[in-house]
Design a protein that fits this description.
With 45 residues, this protein is an all-alpha fold. The chain has one helix and no strands. The protein has one helix spanning 7-44. The chain crosses the membrane at residues 17-36.
């Protein structure tokens, strides 16, 4: 039993994965910057 993935479906999956990874990267960098800013603010006191 072989299952074939059509080109349009594969392209849609790759596009969704790319967009999801970009959104996750932006969210993670925002959270990281917020944590660093909080650490710096507590260190100044």
């Amino acid at each position: 039993m072989t299952t074939y993935v059509f080109f349009e479906d594969a392209l849609r999956m790759l596009t969704n994965a790319y967009l999801l990874s970009a959104v996750l990267l932006i969210a993670a960098s925002g959270i990281g910057l917020a944590v660093i800013e909080t650490i710096e603010k507590t260190g100044e006191r």
